[in-house]
Amino acid sequence: MTSAEMSASVQLADRALWAKGGAISYLMQQGIENPQCLSLAAGFVDASTLPVDLVRNATDRLLAENIRGRAFLQYGTTGGAERARRAVLEHFATQEGKAVADLGVDLSRVILTNGSQQFLSLVAQVLLNPGDICLVAAPTYFVFLGTIAGVGAKAITVETDTNGMRPDALDAKLDELDAVGLGDRVKLIYLVSNFENPSGYVLAAERRERIVEIAKRRSTSHRIHVLEDSAYRELRYEGDDPPSVWGCDPDGEHVIYTQTFSKSFSPGLRVGFGIAPTELVAPIASRKGNEDFGSAHLNQHIIASVLADGSYYEHVNEVCESYRRKRDAMVAAAREYFSDIDGVSWVEPRGGLYVWMTLPEHFDTSFDSRLFEIATQKELVMYVPGELCYGGEPAERPRNHMRLSYGVLSPDEITEGIRRLANAIRSL
Amino acid sequence: MTSAEMSASVQLADRALWAKGGAISYLMQQGIENPQCLSLAAGFVDASTLPVDLVRNATDRLLAENIRGRAFLQYGTTGGAERARRAVLEHFATQEGKAVADLGVDLSRVILTNGSQQFLSLVAQVLLNPGDICLVAAPTYFVFLGTIAGVGAKAITVETDTNGMRPDALDAKLDELDAVGLGDRVKLIYLVSNFENPSGYVLAAERRERIVEIAKRRSTSHRIHVLEDSAYRELRYEGDDPPSVWGCDPDGEHVIYTQTFSKSFSPGLRVGFGIAPTELVAPIASRKGNEDFGSAHLNQHIIASVLADGSYYEHVNEVCESYRRKRDAMVAAAREYFSDIDGVSWVEPRGGLYVWMTLPEHFDTSFDSRLFEIATQKELVMYVPGELCYGGEPAERPRNHMRLSYGVLSPDEITEGIRRLANAIRSL
C-alpha cells in the first residue's frame, strides 16, 4: 500500500459542506471553557433558576416502584409518549386560552423532540430542498439560519421593524421573487413570534393575521407553510400574551408551531415539541425515525409529571421573576454606560433573554473584528455578533449589531459586563 | 380566497419522499399498542433488566446538591459533556483491552448522541450524497437501511454467510461497481460486527482485518469509510469478544465506530456514542449543531456516573444472564416446534437479541403476506419480516425469513410465541 492510498482524501457529502452548525457550537464551547469571560453571548438559561429539586422529585416518583419505573427507561415511540404528548397539548391549550377539545388537534399532531431545535431541523428537512427559500425576519434566530443553510436552502430576509416582520414587505418580497422566477421556491416563512432571538421584538397581533393570510393567498403552486417558533413565549415579564400565529390558522394547515421546555424549565432535559399540520405528521415522524426514532423517554415523563402536578407553572413564575430583575439590570446598565456614546441604541424587551444593541454603522462587531478581540481578550466580556443573525448574502448583512443575553449572569455581573462592553467600544 | 387556494397541495422535499422511517415506527407502535400480541418483533430490551434503582440513585446523587445539580440541567456542548465523554472513552478502552492512553483517541473524537442511531444518521448525512452507495451485509439492520434511503443513497448488499460479510464478495462487488462506472459512488461499508441485527452473525476476526484492508486499498479516488456498529457487543452470552474492526485500523482514519447504552442499560435515556476519524469530527458536530446542538445533558451524566462507580458493569452481567436464559428458551422452543417442519432453519446466536429464521423459499413472510396476517390476527404473535433487512432492489429481496427477538418476552412467553408461530406456518 502506498502512502498516497493511505491518505486518500475524505469526500464529504454536500450537506456536510453546507452545515453551519459551527457558530452555536463555538459559542457554547466558549461559554463553558472561559468562565473568566463574562458571557453576554450564551443563550444558556439562568443557572439559579434550574429546577434541581423538581427534577429529582419527579424522577424519584417515576422510578419509585420497580415495575412501573421500568416503562420510563424503555424505548418510547418516535413521536413521544402518549401521556407526555397529552400533557403538552394541555399545556399548549392553556396558553391558547382554550380547552383541548376546542383546539381541534389530534394527539398524533403533537411531536416531542430534542428541544425545539430538533423540531425546527425536521421541518427544514421535510420541506426544504437545496435551492428552496425560507423567508425570515431581519434579524432572526441564528441557529435556524444554520439549519436552513445545512439543507442547502436559502434564508431570505424580509424587512422587519420593532413590531416584527412587516406584512407589506413580505408581500413585496414575494412579488420580487416571482419577478425573478423564484416564487416557486418559497416553501416556508419562519417567525419567532414572541421576544425574537436576538431582537426581543414581538410580532404584532394584527401582523400575525396578515402574514397567515398572505401565506394562504400566495399558496398557489404549492402550500407555503408558516413556522412559528415560540421558544420564549412563557418568558414574558409584562403585558399580555397575544394570540399565537398558529391561532390565526383555524384549519391548522398552514402554520406549524414549536415551543420548548429548555428556556422555561431545563435545557439539560432536552424536551421540546411541535404541532404539525396533519399532512406533515407522517413525513416528520419518518424523518425522526431515520434520525433517532424517539427522544429520551424518561425526560418526556419528567416534563409530563411537573406539568401535571402544577409545579412547572410555579417554577415558570419564579423564572420570570428572576429574568425580569436581570432584564431590568441590563437595561439600567445600558442606560448608564451607553447613553453618552453617540449613535448607540438598544431594544428594551418585555420578555425573552436578549437585548439587541445597535452601534453606529461604521462599527464592526463580527468575530474577526477588532471590537470582538478587545471585548473577549482585554475586557473579558463576550457577545454574539449581530451579523450571525441575518439571512441573505454575507456581504449584505449589517455588522454593527450585538446580541446581549442576560440569561446566565447575575444582575451585578450583567452590570459589570455592560460596563466592560462600553469600555471596549469607547476604546475604538 | 377560493377553496382551490385553501387546499394548495403540500410539496415535500425529496428527502421526505425518500424517508423510510415507517417500518421502525410502525413496529414500535404495534409493540406498544397490542399488548395482547406476543411480540417477537420488538427490538425493545427486557423490561425486567431495566435499571430503575441505578438510574434513580444516580439521579439522586447528581441532583442532591442544588448548586452542583444545576450544571446537569443546563445545556451541555454539542458533542457531549467532557466528563461523560471521558467515561465513555474509558469504557471503550476497557472493551478494547487497552489503556486509554494507548488508544490514541483525542476526547474530541468521542461524540455522544441520542442512541447510536443518531450517530449512524449523522454519519450517513455527512458522507452520503443522493446516489452514493453504502455496502451492507445481507441481511442487516433495517433501521439503518431506512437512514441510507432517507438521504437518497443506495444500500447495496454484499454476499454474507454465517461468519458475516464475505471479503472476497466485497472485493468482487467493488469490481462489479467499477465496471459499471459506479465505483466512485461507494462511500461507506456498514458492518454490524457483533451479533448482527437480525442475523446474529459475528463478523469473523480474520474478515475484520481483510475488510479494513480492502477499504484502504480501494480508497483511490476518495476515502472509503467503514462504519462499525457494535450495538450488541456487550450482550455476549458465551465466547470471547474478538478485536473490533476499529482496532484493525491503527491510524483511525478509515473506521468509524459506534455503540449504544440502549441495549446494555436503558434505551429510555437515549445515550449512544461514536468515535470518529479526526477529519469527520467537525462535520459531524456541525450537522449535530444544526439538528439539536447536543443530547440530553442530564442523561449523559447518569451514564458517566454508573460507568464510574462500576454499577454499570454489574448490571450488564445481570442483563446477559437474563438474555442467555431467554436465548436458550427460544432456541429450545425452535427445536421443539420447528424441527418437524421441512426446510425451516435458524441461527443459534451467541449474543444479541435475535434468532434469524429461514423458511422454505415458497413462503412469504412480508407485512402484506397471508402468514403475517394469520400470525398477528389469529395466532396473536408478531415478528419482523426478513425482507425489511435487505438492501438492493425490493424485487430481489428474499421474502422467506423472519427476525425473532427474545428481548421483551419472558422465557415462557417466548416458548408460547414460538409455538404460535409454528402453528401459523403449519396452517399454510
TrEMBL record, chains A, B:
Aminotransferase class I/classII large domain span: 38-421
Cofactor(s) recorded in Swiss-Prot or TrEMBL: pyridoxal 5'-phosphate
Record keywords, A-Z: Aminotransferase, Pyridoxal phosphate, Transferase
EC number per UniProt: 2.6.1.39
Broad class of enzyme this protein falls into: transferase
CDD domains per the UniProt record, alphabetical: AAT_like
A biological process term (GO) from this entry: alpha-amino acid metabolic process
Molecular-function GO term, any one: pyridoxal phosphate binding
UniProt xrefs under PANTHER family: AMINOTRANSFERASE, KYNURENINE_ALPHA-AMINOADIPATE AMINOTRANSFERASE, MITOCHONDRIAL
Full protein name: 2-aminoadipate transaminase
Gene (name only): lysN
